[in-house]
Design goal:
FAD/NAD(P)-binding domain, alpha/beta, single chain, five-stranded parallel sheet, NADH oxidase, FAD/NAD-bd_sf, Enolase-like, domain 1
Length: 448
Amino acid sequence: MTTTVAVVGCTHAGVFAANSILREHPDWQVHVFERNETVSFLSCGIALWVGGHVSDPKKMFYSSPQALEQAGATVHMHTDVTDVDVAAKTLEFRDLQTGDTQTLPYDKLVVTTGSRPIVPPLPGIDSKRVQLCKNWDDAVQIKERAHDLKNVIVIGAGYIGAELAEQFSTRGTQVTLIDAADRVLANNFDRFITDQVEAKYREHGVTLALGEAVKAFRDNGDSITVVTTKGEYTAPYAVLAVGFRPNTDLVRGQVETLDNGAIVVDEFMRASVPDVFAAGDSATVLFNPTGKLDYIPLATNAVRQGELVGLNIEKPTRKYMGTQATSAVQLYDLSLAASGMTQTYANNHGLDIRSTELLEDYRPAFMLSTAPVSCMLTWDPQTRLVKGAQFCSTTDEVAGAANVVSVAIQAKFTIDMLANVDFLFQPNFDQPVYYVGAVAAKAAAEQR
């Protein structure tokens, strides 16, 4: 008898899960359910599109419903899965265009429903002048509204909000960036890095309303006023980008989850109930710097977890290696990259972690041009294990440095090992001692 698989949700984890299942089991019946009209949208490109840095928005998709069908899937677009009975192994769904409802008995369930934007229950937040930034429809609306926009409010100074604020400002739009935290990118970088970013925002005329919690929205008809704990700000539109939470209501209470709803999965992407798998923003990840389950919604995690679903759906075959949450962003002429644990994260979680800072040019002074790199390495003073790193510079080479540290964390390098890695030296690229090794050596010297 043919095995029937239901894949619910199809952005990154869903696309890779469906393809990997069909590659490993081409004779299985794989049903893919997606409520939107697109799959595989690279939402990380929204801000770049707003700023005019995307050659063709169609290239912001790397797959399509047609490609999935060609691979052998039965694709249900514009379809809302309304109920899942994990114990009975049945799934109910409704065609959003016709209203027709059906029930699908399945053998295996893959929950790749992703995440949804956090929308706090604040007065006036349902105004049409409060814009979300998550999917293709949001992207189209933001792009259309950006045309001739004189000023805008961005709420949330994480990656999405930070990038939007930067791109709006480079278009000549007056931007107010609001966040309850006292720094931009507070969850991604420490102050050694974020102070430099904030200086760039101010240079470009961005108003930083930091340490201000939003209390309410007031729709004025032709504008929106955002009321915070410290003041009021008015613009034609406000973009809400304050984070995401797992979109897992369909199976909540039927499988084990974290308090925020993320489905707890093991190293083979299996949920707590047999024949249920989860991946991507709907699932937990193993955060290697702590060795504990965490919730870190990143496309890179979704892609790798989704791929593992197909490899493990019949029998456990390949283990998930965990994540360092390695990421990067470019803001104005600054490139920022990070991997692993920040000092702020360690402090907030009561962990005994040390950090070492280093500022030096990335290549020799005799070159016609060079640039300083701000480096910050976090490490465990007891085990000397590398726990994380952050880099900031006007050279985009720092993205590679974050990848280097990601490998070091995953391989359980100590600061001594990282300091003695055989890094290349060539004046076009780096100093005789590569700055990743240099900051590790400084850390090792501090601990002697």
